[in-house]
Write a structure and sequence with these properties.
Pathway: Lipid metabolism; butanoate metabolism. By secondary structure, this protein is of the alpha/beta class. The protein has helices at about 15-30, 40-60, 95-105, 125, 160-175, 190-205, 210-220, 230-235, 235-250, 260-265, and strands at about 10-15, 35, 70-75, 85-90, 115, 135-140, 150-155, 175-180.
Length: about 290
């Protein structure tokens, strides 16, 4: 545990699945967390999720047993004023993230580390919508962040050395491993993964194979821990479609145009694990 960070405060803006997961990771390492969202009900669900996931992660030996960082909930950006670092984890749309980042910049002191947990939007595009692009870094935590040690870190062209140093201090406190990559749509992870998921979904749509068979090719033949469609269910099919939209808009590559089956599943409310059904039915059979 990094002693310096146990007396500092990490703020997380956005109390969805990823925001709650990052909060679990931080409090599990003794770091005080302010979790902010404009929806009180989402904050209540996140608080319950943090409590549940913290117990699970410690049972699995993925988080240290010992002191737990204090979790504070808030609906006001004014409460960010004494934060030592802020992680933005709102919906993966440019407008939502730009609005949150602008609110963060208005609330925190210059020089405060601001990271955007974006999975596809270029960091410099987001930083350019702020008053302090030098303080902005991209951090792509994988889901669930308390189980996966590596973090895809994206340094934008205007990210400053001080912001990178502050981020590395925070990642050390969270016992995470930095994988530094260059800026651009989808970075490395989703530039590759989203095309694979989209193509896998197209194969199911075309009747070439079931979702189960597609995933078994990856797990049984390639030795991957999970197949692309089970991975999509874990990410959330709504998040997959949003990310594909970002990639298609910025690359004009039709390989990132979300296939009809993905769009229909999202429209029907079958978003994956978080709704109990996506390409697979959790506790049941393939969909």
């Amino acid at each position: 545990m990094n002693g310096a960070w146990t007396s500092r405060k990490l703020a997380i803006v956005g109390a969805g699945v990823m925001g709650a997961g990052i909060a679990t990771l931080a409090v599990g390492h003794g770091v005080p967390v302010l979790l902010l969202d404009i929806h009180e009900e989402r904050l209540r669900r996140a608080r319950d999720a943090v409590r549940r996931e913290l117990g699970f992660a410690r049972l699995m030996g993925k988080l240290p047993k010992g002191a737990t960082g204090h979790l504070t909930l808030s609906t006001s950006y004014d409460d960010l004023r004494d934060a030592d670092a802020v992680i933005e984890a709102v919906t993966e749309t440019t407008d939502a993230k730009a609005k949150a980042l602008a609110e963060i910049c208005a609330a925190v002191a210059p020089g405060t580390l601001i990271t955007s947990n974006t999975s596809a939007i270029p960091v410099d595009e987001l930083a350019g919508r702020t008053t302090r692009p030098q303080d902005v870094v991209g951090t792509h935590f994988m889901n669930p962040p308390y189980l996966i040690r590596a973090v895809e870190v994206v340094r934008g062209p205007r990210t400053g050395d001080a912001a990178m140093a502050a981020l590395r201090s925070l990642l050390a406190a969270l016992d995470r491993e930095e994988v530094l990559v260059g800026d651009g749509p989808g970075f490395v992870s989703n530039r590759i993964l989203m095309r694979v998921i989209n193509d896998a979904a197209r194969l199911v749509e075309e009747g070439r194979a079931s979702a189960e068979a597609v995933d078994q090719v990856f797990t049984g033949c390639f030795g991957h821990p999970t197949g692309p469609l089970a991975t999509a269910d874990l990410i959330g099919l709504d998040n997959v479609v949003d990310t594909l939209r970002v990639l298609h808009d910025r690359t004009q590559d039709d390989g990132y145009l979300a296939c009809d089956l993905l769009v229909e599943k999202v429209r029907s409310g079958d978003h994956g694990r978080k709704t109990g059904k996506g390409f697979h039915i959790y506790g049941g059979t393939s969909a």
